[in-house]
Amino acid sequence: MKRRQEDFANLVNEVDIIMLDIEGTTTSISFVKEELFPYVRQEISNYLKETWDTQLTKDDVAALTRQVSEDARAGVEPLPTSHSPEVLIPALVATVAAMMDADSKVPALKALQGHMWHRAYLNGAITGQSESSRGGGYEGSGVSEGGHSASLTTRSGALPCHPLLHSPPESTPLTQQACK
């Protein structure tokens, strides 16, 4: 059954939160699969080497280590017990690749990906895809209807970089709302 735009506008007035996933919603699925995910695969080793001593990376490594430890009970290869980056980084690269191959949605992986994308957006290694460049946008979609503004959120661990996904962030109604 097809719904009309006013049906959606009425529905939005009855909710407080609209949950969006970036894949296919605010950006094309091809951008995520052809740009964002390959970036992680290509750059994870460099990223870990360059950020190894930062608290953010230490936290990501600790979370991945805990996840792999839990998964090891199910037969997944455990990480080396060494804390040496020369030993641990190649094992982490392989682990992240295996998680991505399995389309894992574990928070430890999503957080690391989000941190990598955030850094890449800030240093220009990745340029965000604007809503208008994908032929979409959210003008008139009911995100703000009759004075009622719905809060926008996402389920992904990549939340810190979502405002950067749309270049420039202030250019569209959706990113203006999401960045508040």
From TrEMBL:
It comes from the Eukaryota. Residues 128-180 are annotated as: Disordered. InterPro entries: HAD-like_sf (IPR036412). Residues 134-145 have a biased composition (Gly residues). GO terms for molecular function: acireductone synthase activity. GO terms for biological process: L-methionine salvage from methylthioadenosine. This is Enolase-phosphatase E1. It comes from Cherax quadricarinatus (Australian red claw crayfish).
